[in-house]
Design a protein that fits this description.
About 45% of the residues lie in helices and about 15% in strands. It is α/β, with parallel strands linked by helices and about 160 residues long.
């Protein structure tokens, strides 16, 4: 299990962002976002690895969520994967509203970090879903629409 979370460094009042993934993706996304925005407070990574103890994994991200300020959100790699399933187990046994979205990518994380001061929780999740969808572009179609034809084989 790869974990990036420091309870002693929580900034009160700033909604947290918990990124969950298979392998090192969550850490890599947070590190890459820091290249763009600088270091961010209240951002945590929880990556599950083969043969990890899933109860330990669930306890780790649950501890972070329960200690981060209200409005904290979960960004998960894939729908139906282990991080998603572990979060669902937590949700099913919790009386809290747990804002979460799957399909995390760099654009989504940057948007979450940049906007969590003004919107958080479910409203932020709604915004992130739209941002993620809008961020997916077929570059060949954009070029065609602009009247440019491109042979993508030349960029291999």
């Amino acid at each position: 299990m790869i974990v990036k979370f420091a309870r002693e460094k929580i900034r009160p009042g700033l909604p947290g962002i918990i990124v969950m993934s298979h392998g090192p993706l969550a850490m890599a996304l947070i590190e890459t976002a820091a290249m763009v925005l600088g270091d961010s407070e209240n951002v945590a990574a929880f990556s599950v690895e083969a043969n990890d103890d899933l109860e330990e994994y669930r306890n780790a991200f649950t501890d972070a969520y329960e200690n981060l300020p209200e409005g904290t959100v979960f960004l998960i790699d894939i729908y139906g994967g282990t991080p998603y399933n572990q979060l669902m187990q937590y949700i099913m046994h919790s009386d809290k509203e747990v804002p979460a979205v799957t399909g995390v990518n760099l654009g989504m994380l940057i948007e979450a970090i940049s906007n969590r001061d003004s919107i958080s929780g479910v409203k932020l999740i709604d915004e992130l879903e739209d941002v993620a969808k809008d961020g997916i572009k077929n570059i060949s179609r954009i070029l065609e629409a602009a009247g440019r034809s491109v042979d993508l084989r030349r960029y291999r």
